[in-house]
């Protein structure tokens, strides 16, 4: 059985990316990183408005504690296949209750939109000093285009800001236009673009195993 062609993940302005293009490598996926920086005049009102709009739909938006673990696991199972997968943005692992507990112990917090005990949307965030990183934000397919994803992410930003975070990082797959628009509505600015480049078809019978070279690539959403 043939092995996969090598894949390199490089920033779009990396000279090596241009060199690989010239050598016949082709872009098979794109990904991006974005930042939100809160200045001393940070106004939480626009973020609260996203939360309030969601709550007007008979939805509660809040941090999900340990009592929500089972509902959160059901939500993650339902949304797992919705993530666009690229060499730079792999799908998050399917987790169990122990995994969730370990993540909480490591400082991750999760904010959700819930109704009748069901998690409709959720966003994971972790704060390191004045830096915060979002891992994933997702919404059930049946609840899309109702402002729930932006509401839970807004709630997470408000909570992290209250803990002292001032710079927020996120990212995702280039094909996920909805995620880009959602983040931009919160004030995130695209700061970097990554290219997943696949090697040309080998001219002989040899081919390398798939590799990834993206230690700094964005993996958050």
Note the topology.
Elements: E1 7-11, H1 15-22, E2 26-37, H2 45-55, E3 60-63, H3 69-79, H4 97-105, E4 108-115, E5 118-128, E6 131-139, H5 148-162, E7 167-173, H6 177-185, E8 189-198
Helix pairs in contact: 2-5
Number of strands: 8
Counted by DSSP, the helix tally is 6
The oligomeric status of these chains comes to single chain
Q: What is the share of helical residues?
A: 25-40%
Tell me the fraction of residues in β-strands, as a range.
25-35%
Radius of gyration, whole Å: 19 Å
Distance between the termini: 34 Å
Order of helices and strands: EHEHEHHEEEHEHE
Output the CATH homologous superfamily of the domain at 42-190. Gcn5-related N-acetyltransferase (GNAT)
CATH architecture annotation of the domain at 42-190: 3-Layer(aba) Sandwich
> Which shape, going by the Cα principal axes?
globular
**What is the residue-mean pLDDT, rounded to a whole number?**
89
Question: Would you mind describing this structure in some detail?
Answer:
With 221 residues, this protein is an alpha+beta fold. The chain has a domain of 149 residues: 3-Layer(aba) Sandwich (Aminopeptidase), CATH 3.40.630.30. It is 29% helix and 30% strand. An eight-stranded mixed sheet has the order 1-8-2-7-6-5-4-3, sandwiched between helices. α2 packs across α5. It starts with 6 loop residues before the first strand and ends in a 23-residue tail after the last strand. About 6% of the residues have low confidence.
């Amino acid at each position: 059985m043939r092995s996969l062609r090598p894949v390199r993940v490089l920033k779009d302005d990396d000279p090596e990316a241009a060199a690989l293009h010239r050598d016949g490598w082709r872009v098979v996926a794109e990904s991006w990183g974005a930042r939100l920086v809160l200045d001393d005049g940070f106004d939480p009102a626009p973020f609260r408005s996203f939360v309030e709009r969601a709550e007007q739909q008979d939805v509660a938006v809040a941090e999900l504690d340990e009592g929500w673990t089972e509902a959160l696991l059901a939500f993650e199972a339902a949304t797992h296949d919705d993530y666009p997968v690229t060499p730079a943005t792999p799908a998050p692992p399917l987790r169990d209750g122990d995994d969730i507990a370990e993540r909480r112990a490591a400082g991750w917090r999760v904010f959700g939109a819930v109704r009748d005990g069901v998690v409709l949307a959720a966003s994971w965030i972790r704060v390191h000093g004045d830096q915060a990183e979002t891992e994933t934000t997702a919404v059930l397919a049946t609840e899309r285009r109702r402002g729930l994803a932006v509401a839970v992410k807004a709630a997470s930003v408000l909570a992290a800001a209250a803990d002292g975070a001032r710079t927020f990082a996120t990212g995702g797959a280039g094909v996920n236009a909805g995620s880009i628009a959602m983040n931009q509505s919160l004030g995130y600015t695209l700061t970097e673009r990554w290219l997943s480049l696949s090697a040309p078809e080998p001219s002989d019978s040899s081919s390398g195993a798939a590799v990834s070279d993206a230690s700094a690539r964005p993996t958050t959403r």
